Amino acid sequence: MRSPKDFFRPLAVGAPEPVREIPFRPSRMIHFFDPGNEKMAAKVPELVGRADVVLGNLEDAIRADHKERARAGLVRIARATEFGDTQLWTRVNSLDSPWVLDDLITLVTEIGDKLDVIMVPKVEGAEDIHYVDRLLAQLEARAGLSRPILVHALLETASGVADVEQIAMASPRMQGISLGPADLAASRRMKTTRVGGGHPGYLVRTDPTGDDLTAGRATYQQDLWHYTVARMVDACAAAGILPYYGPFGDIADVVACEDQFRNAFLLGCVGAWSLHPRQIDIARRVFSPDPAEVAWARRVIAAMGDGTGAVMIDGKMQDDATVKQCRVVAELADALAARDPELARAYAQESPDA
Hints:
The protein is an alpha/beta fold. It has helices spanning 38-47, 67-80, 100-111, 126-143, 158-162, 164-168, 181-188, 226-239, 254-267, 277-286, 291-304, 320-337, 341-349, and strands spanning 29-33, 53-57, 87-91, 117-120, 150-155, 174-179, 199-205, 219-222, 242-244, 272-274, 310-313, 316-319.
């Protein structure tokens, strides 16, 4: 077991100092693109400023014979693009693949100064993060980087869920965790072929009202991912890192996508993946607090003064627990408003002092 005092020492001579706190940067949507696809690559400059995060995908959805093309494409895009406030992430290939070592060596040494976060897929346990942590430190030292590249774990195996608390705390460079529902479903032997969302067969049924067990009994589709998302959120909160919902695969069903994203937002996630440009706007809308909610939160905070005791507002009791909840909403609104002028105007118009 490492001594706590060693936790924030670089893992390689010449590597940058590890971060002591993960900075909150708006990341309502992590927008995936194929760097080896010329049409997608050409659209990356249009995404800068529109998406909080753009992610060059090297893993799933990239054919084996296109892996090197995607990697080289990401290097070209990173060098040619000024990203401003938009973050550049990548998802490398899985740690058991023949491509991941070249992914890490190439990306860190050639565009490490542009990369904010590396997403590691199919993380099984803390040992996977320890491996990546040490290797990144060695490569950062080789490249002469002045800041560490952060790591994001993809939760998509049963072993990963069982070890999620240890994964979240495995390294100072841990930025967050995303749910990967498709691979997780396969790992758990779940009987669904959907990528995210609920399932019509996973339901609850109202009680019978008479002898006929079929008459008048409404059914309600349930969320297959509620337990896993809640556990992931708890692990991330305890570690001081950020939780995300993953992909929603039915691109055409924008209504269900918005519902799934909102469930994740209410449970504590800060963002979700977008697989198509139309999902960018859904994520921006869902993971930004409603202006009316922000105005209410600020009204409660103002009425509570030093945050202790209790007050009555519109016939409802508010106390120190309530003001903590309201600060979560208000602080998120402030962080988003600093990046998004449209939101800043909306929040200002709804403020109690406006």
